[in-house]
Amino acid sequence: MISNESPARVRALAMELKAAREGANLRTRDAARMIGTSAPTLSRTETAKRFALATDVSALLAIYGVTGADRTRIMELAENLDAPHWLESGDHRPRLLPALKHFERRAIKITQFSPALVPGLLQTPAYIRALMRFANSDEQVREEWIAARLDRQAILNARLSPRYVAYLDEGMLRRPCGGSEVMTHQLQWLMGRDEQPHITVRIIPFKHGFYDSHGAFTLFEFRDDDPIVYIESADAAGFLHASESIARFRGFAGKLDRVALGSSDSVDFLARMVVDYGRS
Q1: How far separated are the first and last CA of the chain, in Å rounded?
Q2: C-alpha to C-alpha distance for 275 and 280, rounded to whole angstroms
């Protein structure tokens, strides 16, 4: 099936199939021949220009040697390509992580609003460790999570890094996570990140009072694909791709832009908060 739309599941499936084929060291034309289709057809599937048939995906995974949990996860994608959105809850939320990392790597601009936590792309190891203690995870799980989070942060240091704008609520930064020392280092890290030309940290201070907040979200914009929004709450997360959803969240970002401090004022604000934590 050919589609002019490019939902998150279709893009995620394309990424998974291409990675699996390359992992099996097969050329596009060879893999296509083995399932009885053409190389252009498989190429369109791997570039999210075509809705793949679940039977074709199943055959490809068998050829590529993909089994177990990875096969189950990829087949779930293939069997739900026409769903209006991609939402996961509870223990199923980790299914979103490969796609999230893929969109972070491919985006040319990332706009993020985080009212309750420092965004993952800006967290220090100590801050991550403190968060994981609240989740009652053991030491090994904490260290694995830290390594995974720091690996994702590498996109902001890449040669072709996306333009990244983070809107942070003052209340979240005033509420210590891990104690004053952890927060001091975290705030100093935010100040240092803002010095990078492609990274902007914007603080929404108390003085603006109430503002129109719709929960945490990340807007991904791409060079050759339609934007995608990632939303996240305590027990659910997912991707939205419909044009009306994109327009709505772009509107939210515009409202945040009007109430947030500018970049230099935000850095000054963070510096004053560092002093405040030093006194506590």
Answers
A1: 61
A2: 9
Beta strand pairing status for 109-114 and 228-232? unpaired
Task: Sheet containing 199-204: give its strands across.
Answer: 86-89, 236-240, 228-232, 217-221, 109-114, 163-169, 199-204
Structure tokens at 178: 């891990």
Instruction: Please give, one letter per residue, the 3-state secondary structure of the chain.
Output: CECCCCCHHHHHHHHHHHHHHHHCCCCHHHHHHHCCCCHHHHHHHHCCCECCCHHHHHHHHHHHCCCHHHHHHHHHHHCCCCCCCEEEEHHHHHHHHHHHHHHHHHCCEEEEEECCCCCHHHCCHHHHHHHHHHCCCCHHHHHHHHHHHHHHHHHHHCCCCCEEEEEEEHHHHHCCCCCHHHHHHHHHHHHHHHCCCCEEEEEECHHHCCCCCCCCEEEEECCCCCCEEEEECCCEEEEECCHHHHHHHHHHHHHHHHHCCCHHHHHHHHHHHHHHHHHC
- What's the predicted TM-score (pTM) here? 0.88
pLDDT of residue 136: 61
The domains located in the chain, with CATH, are: 8-78 (1.10.260.40), 86-279 (3.30.870.10)
Give me the residues of the chain with pLDDT under 70, please. Answer: 1-5, 135-138
Work out the number of other CB atoms within 10 angstroms of the CB of residue 134: 9
Residue 128 burial (10 A CB sphere; 0-12, 13-18, 19+): buried
